[in-house]
Automatic annotation (TrEMBL):
Species of origin: Leucobacter tardus
Part of the full-length chain shown: 328 to 630 of 711
Coiled coil: none
Similarity comment text for this entry: In the central section; belongs to the 3-hydroxyacyl-CoA dehydrogenase family. Belongs to the 3-hydroxyacyl-CoA dehydrogenase family.
Boundaries of every 3-hydroxyacyl-CoA dehydrogenase NAD binding domain copy: 17-196
Name recorded for this polypeptide: Enoyl-CoA hydratase/isomerase family protein
Length: 303
C-alpha cells in the first residue's frame, strides 16, 4: 500500500531530455547529476554566453575530477561530457520533457522566467523549481498549466547531499508528483514530499540555526567564536562556512522569506545582509569553494 500522500508511481513518466534554466552554482551541479545518472541530453541556459560558458566549464571540471578519482571511466566521462550542452537559444528547450530552473531566488524573477519559457516548451513538459523557500504555487501563479509545476529542491553540494525536497503545490497533479519522486530516486537521492510552506522542511530548521548564529554576531560575538563554538555540537560545518557554500545572498533571501512569513519566530539580522552585499563582489569564482570569504568579509565589517 502506498504511504498517505505519495502518488501512484505507475503515473511517473520517463524523462528523456532535461532543460536547466540558470547556469550558476546549483544549476550546473544538478545539470551534471541529471546527465550522469539519467544518461539523457541536458541543455543549460543563462542570461548570456559568458554565464553559460562558466557553467559548462564547471561541469567539465567536475567530470574530470570524478574521472581522476576513478568514479567515471574515460568512456563514461566522455559520454557525460557530450550529453551536457550550453546555449542561449531557448528554442533548444522545445523538446525537453523536464525543465528545471535555478535562477535568482526572487519571486518576480522566477515567475518571469517561467512566463517566458512556457510558450516555447512542450505542452506535456514537467516544470520544476529549485526554490529554497519561496511558494511554488506563487511561482506558478501565471502559468497556463500550473498543474505541471513541482518544487524540486536540491542541497549543496549536490553530488554529496542525499536529499531532495519534492514540494507539492496546491495545483501540482499526481503525474507530475510521481515523475518528480521517481526522477529523484533515479538521481540516487532520497526524496521527501513536503507541503508548499515557507522554507519547506529543511530551510525552516536551517534558517533557525543561521538566524541564531547571525544574532550572536549582532550582539557582538566575533564570527570565529560563533563558528568554533558550533563545531563541537556535531555540525559538519560551522554556520558561516555553510553560508559560504550555499551563497550569502541565498542565505539572506531564505532568512527574509522566513522572517516575512513568521516575523515572531525568525530573526532578521542586519549583519547577514551586510555580509551578503560584501560577499557578492568577492565571489569571483562563482563555482569554486569560496573558502576565504568569511575572513575577507569580516574584515570589511569588523565582525
Ligand atoms: N562538489 C562535489 N563534491 C564535493 C563538494 C562539492 N562542492 N564538496 C565536497 N565534496 C565531496 C568530496 O569530493 C569528498 O568526496 P570523496 O570522498 O570522493 O573525496 C566528499 O564530498 C567529502 O568531502 P571532504 O572530505 O572534502 O570534506 P568533508 O568530509 O568535510 O565533507 C561536506 C564536506 C560534505 C560539504 C560536509 O562538510 C557537509 O555535509 N556540510 C554540510 C552541507 C550542508 O548542510 N548542505 C546543505 C546546505 S542547505 C542548502 O543547500 C539549501 C539551500 O536552499 C540553502
Amino acid at each position: 500500500k502506498r504511504p498517505a500522500g505519495a502518488p501512484d508511481k505507475d503515473l511517473a513518466r520517463k524523462v528523456q531530455k532535461v532543460g536547466v534554466i540558470g547556469a550558476g552554482l546549483m544549476a550546473s551541479q544538478f545539470a551534471l547529476l541529471f546527465a550522469r545518472k539519467l544518461r539523457v541530453p541536458v541543455v543549460i541556459t543563462d542570461l548570456d554566453q559568458a554565464r553559460v560558458d562558466a557553467g559548462i566549464a564547471h561541469i567539465r571540471g567536475e567530470i574530470e575530477k570524478m574521472h581522476e578519482k576513478g568514479r567515471l571511466s574515460r568512456d563514461a566521462a566522455n559520454q557525460v561530457t557530450a550529453l551536457v550542452t550550453g546555449t542561449t537559444d531557448r528554442k533548444q528547450f522545445a523538446d525537453c520533457d523536464w525543465v528545471i530552473e535555478a535562477v535568482f531566488e526572487e519571486l518576480g524573477v522566477k515567475q518571469q522566467v517561467f512566463g517566458e519559457f512556457e510558450p516555447i516548451l512542450r505542452e506535456d513538459a514537467i516544470l520544476a523549481t529549485n526554490t529554497s523557500s519561496l511558494s511554488v504555487d506563487e511561482i506558478g501563479a501565471h502559468l497556463a498549466h500550473p498543474e505541471r509545476l513541482v518544487g524540486f529542491h536540491f542541497f549543496n553540494p549536490v553530488a554529496v547531499m542525499p536529499l531532495i525536497e519534492v514540494v507539492q503545490a496546491a495545483r501540482t497533479d499526481d503525474e507530475t508528483l510521481a515523475t518528480a519522486m521517481t526522477t529523484a530516486k533515479q538521481l540516487g537521492k532520497s526524496a521527501v514530499i513536503t507541503a508548499d510552506r515557507p522554507g519547506f522542511v529543511v530551510n525552516r530548521l536551517l534558517a533557525k540555526v543561521m538566524g541564531e548564529a547571525a544574532r550572536a554576531l549582532d550582539e557582538g560575538t566575533p564570527l570565529p567564536v560563533v563558528e568554533r563554538a558550533l563545531g563541537p555540537i556535531g555540525l559538519p560545518m560551522g554556520p558561516f562556512e555553510l553560508i559560504d557554500l550555499v551563497g550569502w545572498k541565498v542565505a539572506a533571501h531564505v532568512q527574509d522569506t522566513m522572517v516575512g512569513a513568521f516575523p515572531d519566530r525568525f530573526y532578521a539580522s542586519e549583519n547577514l545582509h551586510a555580509l551578503a552585499e560584501i560577499a557578492e563582489p568577492l565571489d569571483k569564482n562563482r563555482h569554486g569553494k569560496v573558502t576565504d570569504l568569511s575572513k575577507a568579509a569580516r574584515k570589511r565589517i569588523r565582525v
